Amino acid sequence: MSQYTDTKHRSSVRQQESSYWIKLEPEVNCDKTDEASTYSLQSEAGKFECSVSGLRWVSKDKVDFKYQFLSWEEHIDRVESLQYMPAGPLLDITVTAGKLNEVYLPHWICTGMWTH
Predict the structure, then answer these.
(1) Under a CB-based contact definition with an 8 Å cutoff, are residues 45 and 18 in contact?
(2) 20 with 11: CB under 8 angstroms?
(3) pLDDT of 16 strictly over 70
(4) Residue 71 contacts by C-beta under 8 Å, 6 or more apart in sequence?
(5) How crowded is residue 42: how many other Cβ atoms within 10 Å of its Cβ?
(6) CB 22, CB 48: distance < 8 Å
(7) Which of 11, 29, 47, 96 is deepest in the core (most CB within 10 A)?
(8) What is the 3-state secondary structure (H, E, C) of the chain?
């Protein structure tokens, strides 16, 4: 492995570790019982992770944003017409101030419905 490849690999592995990210607790809003919660976060410059969902982001300046998990149900016809298969959660992310430079979507979500 070249020095460049080895350095890049170590950097990638480090970024996957939770200790590399500053965890933030979101403000959780749910206006209607049949609607998914909306998570609101704000941060200064840095590398952050939502403590609830594992969503990660990098910002070079202050940023405010909100996000909500959506159902694939209303999008499934379009997805199937393109011969795609949904994989992972569908998120609606809205930046309300500033800019997100990078976003890393969670690969899983706990619904609290798992039984042994």
Answers:
(1) no
(2) no
(3) no
(4) 90
(5) 17
(6) yes
(7) 47
(8) CCHHHHHHHHHHHHHHCHHHCEEECCEEECCCCCCCCEEEEEECCEEEEECCCCCEEEECCCEEEEEEEECCHHHHHHHHHCCCCCCCCEEEEEEEECCCCEEECCCCCCCCCCCC
40-72 pLDDT, tens digit each: 999 999 999 999 999 999 999 999 999 999 888
Instruction: Find out whether 54 and 106 touch, Cβ atoms under 8 Å.
Output: yes
Could you tell me which of 91, 89, 93 has the C-alpha nearest to residue 108? 89
Mean pLDDT of the chain: 82
Beta carbons of 70 and 91 less than 8 angstroms apart = yes
8 Å CB contact between 47 and 73: no
CA–chain centroid gap for 90, Å, is 10
Give residue 10's pLDDT: 44
